[in-house]
From TrEMBL:
<protein>
    <submittedName>
        <fullName>Putative peptidase</fullName>
    </submittedName>
</protein>
């Protein structure tokens, strides 16, 4: 009687395990745990697919005037980009189409080029004012930037190694 009870229990457990296996097999595999992240601002798309051609050994992005540079090691954009990564920005675009989340390069009175993310857009009688912040900075930049100080909008990031 004891063996019969154990056998019935083992059969029941096998059925439970087979059901779990079937459930797991039905799911799409992912290396990430089943959790949701918090929605964060992200850059919008700037490059139409018809401007991109993928060739055997290269990717070509056609644009009016593209600007590129190697990042300085300021740590302000850590988590997204860092030195010596290479950024490519588009310089000919409608600055009034910039959105919160876009990453831009801009100039100030004291710097020729800074790359930060737009976190707020306001408008006054002279036009748009952008509040920017490095993704690794705990507070926004202490100044606002106008359209004429925006040099480019980031369209490509290459995670390059040291030379």
């Amino acid at each position: 009687m004891c063996i019969t009870s154990e056998l019935a229990h083992a059969k029941k457990r096998i059925i439970e395990l087979e059901a779990q296996v079937a459930t797991l097999e039905a799911r799409e595999w992912t290396p990430y745990p089943p959790v949701s992240g918090v929605e964060r601002i992200s850059p919008q798309g700037w490059v139409d697919f018809n401007r991109i051609s993928m060739q055997q050994n290269k990717v070509v992005v056609n644009g009016d005037i593209l600007r590129y540079g190697i990042l300085a090691d300021t740590n302000s954009m850590d988590g997204v980009m860092d030195a010596p990564h290479i950024v490519v920005g588009e310089t000919v675009f409608d600055r009034n189409q910039l959105h919160v989340g876009d990453i831009v390069s801009y100039r100030t009175e004291t710097s020729d080029s800074i790359i930060h993310q737009i976190i707020k857009i306001e408008t006054d009688s002279e036009g748009r004012l952008y509040t920017l912040q490095g993704t690794n900075n705990d507070r926004p930049d202490t100044y606002q930037v106008r359209n004429e100080n925006i040099l480019s909008v980031l369209i490509c990031l290459i995670y390059a190694r040291e030379r």
